[in-house]
Design a protein that fits this description.
The chain has 484 residues and is α+β, with helices and mostly antiparallel strands. It folds into 3 domains: 3-297, no CATH class; 303-416, no CATH class; 425-483, Arc Repressor Mutant, subunit A, CATH 1.10.10.410. The protein has helices spanning 3-8, 61-73, 177-194, 227-246, 292-300, 306-317, 321-328, 331-343, 347-365, 376-387, 393-406, 410-416, 425-438, 440-448, 453-463, 470-483, and strands at 12-20, 77-78, 81-82, 85-88, 98-101, 112-113, 116-120, 125-137, 141-144, 154-157, 164-170, 205-212, 219-224, 254-259, 264-269, 280-281, 288-289. Strands 1, 2, 6, 7, 8, 11, 12, 13, 14 and 15 form a 10-stranded mixed β-sheet that branches. The chain is elongated and about 100 Å long. The structure holds zinc ion and manganese (II) ion. The site of manganese (II) ion has 3 residues, from loops.
């Protein structure tokens, strides 16, 4: 659907994003190791995160600092005094039967309020308002033999229980699924530039989306695990609601689950009311006082943020704004770019290579630059080989793909696959002779019309798999024609 078609639907989308602060060494309220991925179940647990009677939580100071950093990056107002609340619900992934979280009502004050992010599109700028940021603990994980419905057993792993989450809640300001995706990409880039999380880790960024059409009931979609999926899930939900509306049906207020394999949403439950959670202040934790000195000192030590980096790329490398924005939206890609440009000082050329061929291969392989097998030094070597004429620009594209798949050096691949450029006059002459022998008509055409030489050059290139040096080939063909 075009933006205009979407506008007619009166779409309102709000997001709630849970981000694990994966750069923290320990959990939010205990000293357990936070690096739980790939660990056997229930390795990193203690009486606090298991919710054993008599255990007392204490707040991870670094987590508070990280949350303040994100709040400042999103132009939010950092609270001078913030409180933890209990969100009660009975579920096996929550050992205490409540989650220590924050609340913005009934006297609760989350760590940061308000804020905004500006999204830039070709035709317009869009301001997305942030409602609040809150700190809370992640629940554990439940896994099943097969599916949730067929499994006779549920397995509980509390390694994740108590991991620090920061929840970012936005106003329902998004009017298209694309805006939601770009917001999440930019949020991820901000978080990674701040150095507070690595969001390429599985499950480290999870998103719930509220969506309503035509001013009707709001539907919440849970369990969206990537920014690409957010756009897909919202698109699927728009089509579903549009169809109901068209046929005069009622759009129910409910919570739906996004199934990324089936590419559609399913009813999960009708929405519980907020009072069901019986929020009340966490009696085991004192309010946290955040002094203005602390905020100032964090602000002064903030790393470079994406918007500043985009401006620096434009100034320092003379890149068009579009290039700078594409590179910086993924921190690892921007880092790779700068690693290359440090040693290969043709910034626009490098950006062209990254934005076209490199990114296309990453998309096809569905990986990020960090997971690909290519390193900056090998990429620089490839560019140098083109400059020296050792390989052609066209074949370099193929070599790049093989580099990304195999991790081999460009020269190694070029030799192995016979992709080196042929500069040897004798060898090129052999290819020319073959073409002249098999295409007498084209030869006589070229004798009459110099423009027809291009065809012969093309045939030689084709026969040599694009390896013959085109300039030498051109020159030798002209000489050969003159002799006839
Ligand atoms: Zn613990
Ligand atoms: Mn939450």
């Amino acid at each position: 659907m075009s933006r205009q078609e979407l506008e007619q639907l009166g779409i309102k989308i709000g997001l709630e994003i849970h981000i694990q602060l994966t750069k923290l060494k320990t959990k939010l309220f205990c000293g357990c190791n936070a690096d739980y991925r790939d660990m056997p179940p229930n390795t990193y647990v203690c009486p606090v995160c298991l919710g054993l009677p008599g255990s007392l939580p204490s707040v991870n100071k670094k987590a508070v600092e990280f949350a303040i950093m994100l709040g400042l990056a999103l132009n939010s107002k950092i609270s001078n005094k913030t409180l933890f609340y209990r969100k009660n619900y009975f579920y096996p992934d929550m050992p205490k039967n409540f989650q220590i979280s924050q609340y913005n009502k009934a006297g609760g004050v989350p760590i940061a309020l308000g804020g905004q992010m500006i999204l830039k599109f070709k035709e317009y700028d869009k301001r997305i308002n942030i409602t609040r940021l809150q700190l809370e603990e992640d629940p554990g994980r439940i896994s099943y033999d097969g599916t949730i419905l067929s499994s006779p057993i549920a397995y509980i792993d509390y390694n994740r229980a108590g991991i620090t989450l920061i929840e970012v809640v936005t106003e329902p300001d998004f009017e298209t699924p694309e805006e939601a995706r770009i917001f999440l990409q930019k949020l991820r880039s901000i978080v990674e530039h701040l150095g507070i999380a690595d969001l390429s880790l599985e499950g480290s960024m999870r998103c719930d989306a509220n969506i309503s059409l035509y001013g009707k009931n709001r539907v919440e979609i849970k369990n969206i695990s990537s920014y690409k999926d957010v756009q897909a899930a919202l698109n699927a939900e728009i089509i579903r609601q549009k169809n109901i509306y068209k046929h005069g049906g009622e759009i129910k207020q409910e919570t739906r689950h996004w199934d990324s394999d089936k590419k559609r949403t399913f009813t999960l439950r009708t929405k519980e009311e907020e009072q069901d959670y019986r929020y009340f202040p966490e009696p085991d934790l004192l309010p946290i006082e955040i002094s203005s000195e602390m905020i100032t000192s964090i602000e002064e030590n903030m790393p470079e943020l994406p918007d500043d980096r985009i401006n620096r790329f434009i100034k320092e490398y003379k890149l068009p704004r579009y290039d700078a924005e594409v590179l910086v939206i993924t921190k690892s890609l921007a880092d790779f770019y700068e690693d290359v440009v440090k040693k290969y000082q043709k910034p626009k050329e490098v950006s062209n290579w990254i934005m076209s061929d490199l990114m296309r291969h990453l998309n096809t392989l569905n990986i990020e630059i960090n997971d690909s097998k290519i390193c900056a030094d090998d990429f620089i070597e490839l560019l140098n080989l083109i400059d020296k004429g050792t390989i052609s620009g066209k074949l370099a594209k193929r070599i790049l793909q093989l580099m990304m798949e195999s991790g081999k050096k460009p020269m190694e691949i070029a030799k192995e696959k016979g992709l080196l450029r042929i500069n040897d006059l004798k060898k090129i002459q052999e290819f020319i002779n073959k073409v002249f022998n098999t295409q007498p008509k084209a030869v006589s055409d070229a004798k009459k019309d110099p423009k027809a030489i291009h065809f012969l050059v093309g045939q030689v290139m084709k026969l040599s798999n694009g390896r013959c040096d085109p300039q030498i080939t051109n020159k030798l063909i002209k000489e050969a024609l003159n002799k006839i």
